[in-house]
Amino acid sequence: MRFRYFRTALAAFLITNYSLLIGTTHAQAPKTWSSSEILLGLKKLNVLGSALYVAAHPDDENTRLIAYLANGRLVETGYLSCTRGDGGQNLIGPELREGLGVIRTQELLAARRIDGGRQFFTRANDFGFSKTPEETFTIWDKEQVLADMVWVIRQRRPDVMITRFPPDGRAGHGHHTASAMLAIEAFSAAADPKRFPEQLQYVQPWQAKRLLWNTGSFFVKAGEDMSQYLKLDAGGYNPLLGQSYGEIAARSRSQHRSQGFGSSAQRGEALEYFQPLKGDKATTDLFDGVDMTWNRVPGGAAVGKLVDEVIRKYDPANPSASVAGLLKVREAINSLFQRAADFHQSKEISSEAIRIRSENELAEAHFWVQNKIQQNEELIRACLGIHLEATAEAPTVPLMNKNIVGGIDNTIKVDVEIINRSSIDVKIISVAVEPNDYEGQFDNNKDIAHQAPSLRKEPTTLMRNEKAKIRSSQVGYWNELKSQPYWLQKTGTTGMYVVVEPRQRGNAEGYPAATAIVRIQVLGQALTFDVPVQYKSTDPVEGEKYRLLTVVPPVAVNIGGHAFVFADNQPKIIPVTLRAGKAGVKGTLALNLPKGWTAEPASIPFELGAKDAEQTVQFRVQPGAGAAEGKSELRAVATVDGQAYSRGYQTIEYTHIPTQTLFPEAVAPLVKLDLRRKGQEIGYLMGAGDEVPDALRQIGYTVTLLKPEDLTEPNLRRFDAVVLGVRAYNTLDRLKTLQPTLLKYVEQGGNLVVQYTVSRGTVLPQIGPYPLTLSTDRVTVENAPVTFLNPSQPLLNTPNKITSKDFEGWVQEQGLYYPSQWDPKYKTVLSSADPGEKAKESAILVADYGKGHYIYTGLSLFRELPAGVPGAYRLLTNMVSLGK
């Protein structure tokens, strides 16, 4: 019996160690360490404490507190975000939903690289603003989200858990409140072996010491006595980093660029307040009663003394002088693992309670041993100044056809570069490059996948500043979605993502496509370092850039548009672009259409000679007599060597995050509707970025994308309507001087349509011709019943008759940032409300101004139009047709 329990605990060690290797971000330049950062790392090596911060979204975390805990208190600090922020808005580009979630994931990772924390997630999908936790839990699978939270707690074993939000209405968002409620439940569930027992083959139950709410002035009433709360000053200055924790926090928070959260640094005292929620009460410190020394590991006191000695002798001008001492520390830590296992095996297990306590003691030792071994080896590498990177000759490698073993079309050359920048000799024992594997990763040819050849068989010694470059490797891949973000590999639901491999849950990213494994010997001890295989390029402006090696299908299929709208039975040309993942790919392309639709030709043969070559083909698609009114869907499918491929190729590129690659399904909405329009020329001034111009073109308008310098009176006169993109008054500073020109256009007979504007941070106090006050009011239930306040209002009647049917099938939300007050000169059009709330009447406000018309709308057209919602097209058409 004792042996079986030991194996369970050993599995816990292995999977926790495995997760640590993949839990950090991959696509970035190799990390370099300054002498002061090494000293900070040495000090952290002697601190055995852990904290987990819990909230709902990217940007909810308290970056100052995370920076303080990770760099001031030197504890392992994690941020668990329930969602990836998929349901928010995007200030820097057009990506929404899954694409936005990928961006915000990387922004969080960029933030953690600055503030020193680790990043974790649950499977919860950010479905948009939620007003109550009750609504949230009707869309999230509460048990699944709770299981993921418990999984992270059991993996990371935090001594202290902290929530950003209270478990009540003060949190202000259903997701916020839900995150705190889940944290309270997970605090106890993680310690209960009866809860989620399937996890116990990998991890052990864990009881954190306490759970606190990180409160502040924004949650309490004015004048409330804060002395009852535990408090700490997180505004200190860290001389080894040359920054205060407030300065670090500002840099970290400013990575959330898609949300416009650039922050200025705060310096000086910064008090943080904490209210107990569960567990032991702290009286003086967050970690009251927690032994954060090596004494918490049996036999660990000797390790602590060795680390103290290394710190005492540390020479910032010669960090390599600490390597010998760190190797002694490494040996001592390694011995603790075996000692703890031997002690566990020798115990007399006389009761279930003793058995559980023994298992937890062993798991505790394993956690800190593997954690500190990793830190120790990174410090050895840093002290040696070793530069290590593995770069591929191209950014992509093609997927191997499962039916072809031993083919050469999926090979790629990899250079592994190693430089020893210390006075200590470094002997290279072996270097290998292999595809990353995990249980169930490779369905076929599993043995072949593990035949990664060693590139260097004879040991080579590197002297000071000597470089070794080991070249050429052949790497095979069998998983079609290897490089797709792991939470997007299977279609999820509105509230939840699906994770194929259970052990990936909680991780910020998936596994890199390939890893270079380098074994070296230093002063007689062997060490192994893993680095992801990346592609490196040099941009003439930005300099060196890294991105992960990406596995691509032999052919990717991209449909040239988001939604295709048929206002009559006339055919439309639908372009499809084929992209070759390898040279010499050929096959046929066809469209799968719903009943009653036809495509000419029925299929198109293609042949792409070079890798990355693209070819755009066109289908003539037409609805027939049997085509149903409303929304349906088409899919593009390419067939190569008898295998069907129906995913596209999408890169997301911004300067503040590594390039991301997605493989979205090659599908697009088909919309057949009864639509009439007036006018022809539309001027469109883009704000934060949206797809509305394409929607206007789909319904037959000629759209001119405007720049601020194009907003002149003579130029605007030629447009039947001018439309301002989402958040234009938040992002275009020049509008504060160009507003008179826009209003002059309206006054002279123009039609100006302004889409939603965030209530905070407008470039001028009034965005309309008459006063209106923007707010955070919204209707989050996308299909909330709508009442027409004035049925004779032209916007509801011409050129299209708007009915309640036009508000069916909406996605995520009905509208947002509705005005809370407005001048009587604005006329309301419709009202709706979320359940239990007072009706909101400002989804559309229209005002006559001079000879023209001004329209403000908070309706979420920017979401509905790309999703192919028929009613959204009819409403937008009526808006741009007003007065014609």
From TrEMBL:
This is LmbE family protein. It comes from the Bacteria. The keyword Signal applies. SUPFAM superfamilies: Class I glutamine amidotransferase-like, LmbE-like. Keywords: Signal. GO terms for molecular function: hydrolase activity, acting on carbon-nitrogen (but not peptide) bonds, in linear amides. InterPro entries: A-galactase_NEW3, Class_I_gatase-like, GlcNAc_PI_deacetylase-related, LmbE-like_dom_sf. Residues 1-27 form the signal peptide. Residues 586-640 form the Alpha-galactosidase NEW3 domain.
